[in-house]
Amino acid sequence: MIDVVLGLQWGDEGKGKIVDVLTPKYDVVARFQGGPNAGHTLEFNGQKHVLNTIPSGIFHSHCINIIGNGVVIDPVTLKKEIEKVTASGAVPLNNLYISQKAHLILPTHRLVDAASEANKGEHKIGSTLRGISPTYQDKIGRNGLRVGDILSSNFKQKYNQVVAFHCAMLDRFNFKYDLSEHESAFFESIEFLKNFKIINSEYFINELIKNGKKIIAEGAQGTLLDIDFGTYPFVTSSNTITGGVCSGLGVAPQKINKVFGIFKAYCTRVGSGPFPTEQDNEMGENLRKIGNEFGATTGRPRRTGWLDLPTLKYSIMLNGVTDLICTKSDILSGLETIPVCDAYEINGKITSEIPFSLTDDKIIPQYKNFNGWSGDLSIIKSYENLPETFQQYMSFVEEQIGLKVGVISVGPDREQTIIR
Ligand code: GDP
Ligand code: IMO
Ligand code: MG
User: Fold this and answer.
1) Which residue minimizes the CA distance to atom 11 of ligand 2?
2) Distance of alpha carbon 140 from alpha carbon 133, whole angstroms
3) pTM across the whole model
4) Is residue 192 scored above 90 in pLDDT?
5) Rounded alpha-carbon distances, angstroms, from residue 68 to 52, 89, 102, 245
6) If you take atom 11 of ligand 1, which residue's CA is the nearest one?
7) Closest-approaching ligand to the CA atom of 16
8) pLDDT class for 408, splitting at 50, 70, 90?
């Protein structure tokens, strides 16, 4: 059986931490989409680890970690990541498996990403500039290169063809670049990756399921960044929702069991795009500082705002969430009042439905104010010992959503997790 762990907001909900906490009960962790635009943070034994492409089960030696076909892989980033986790005691040579059908991010994909963003000017998406969108475009356009191609004798020829196409694009953008330095690192990393288990992952995973193994499908980004249902065009280029698990790993829908949906007790977003409950003010600045809301991949400051129930309900519906997990409630400690948005006013009408475009319509969030709590939540071990005002806040969320919040994360460390 496969259980899914994914984000219900705009990414950075704490997926890495939660996967790491759940992994002891599982045999396999498999990433199903996204690429090194992701930054998943794990903390244990006083050490912090950030993963971009490698699944978050890598530090558990019993756990098989699969980079699925739905993921896009930058060999240069992946090599660096492998070296980093190896230095921290993981043994990816033993427990990392890579799908031969995962697409490759080429150095020119990154350049095209940069050129395209520069060309958009003030309308830019705020991409992580990791080449994600151009790589998925080539996949859908049937021009892409896949991991399995690196084993073929004419790989260089295939590579040159795609690169010629990209160079023509870069010329049209009038974009200046020097490819030579990037290319040597790329081919060196390709050779390095040949040492790892490059597999037919759809057969591999289905065989594991048949043998009764327990699998986590680890999502990247968040539901509101989904290519179909996110705040388009300010989204990423893959399906971040549960539906993406089937195509991103090659498993049938009836193999999916639980869906763990993670939300922060407030909201954050990196890059451009609509954010109805954003606090672009001193309060938001405080949340950013206390919550250390800076991108795990790019270091960019994250925009911050209040919990938004209309989008949360939408995400829960799209993903078929069965188990809710709330993170970072410890960050809200010390606030006198905590607003929660439970509806929007759009054109004079109150609604909790997400409109076609969050960008064009003027949305006025409607808030309910809750009494805040104080003290250090991160040392609390049981739900009953959490402040009463916190429990009131959670009860309201649960009532609105119609699901219980089964796990409350109260700090970045593995140990700072309350399971009800
Ligand atoms: P991901 O992309 O969803 O894996 O999340 P990120 O790692 O990008 O961002 C989440 C950040 O919050 C990381 O720095 C985590 O270490 C941290 N974090 C996760 N859960 C908690 C929590 O409950 N409390 C606090 N204070 N930090 C948390
Ligand atoms: P994790 O897995 C937060 C955002 C970018 C940008 C938009 C498109 O750590 O939650 P892309 O590089 O995908 O073309 O950028 O999506 N974005 C993320 N924001 N967390 C992420 O991943 C993100 N991955 C992409 O900031 O707005
Ligand atoms: Mg992140």
Assistant:
1) 127
2) 11
3) 0.97
4) yes
5) 14, 23, 6, 9
6) 14
7) 1
8) very high
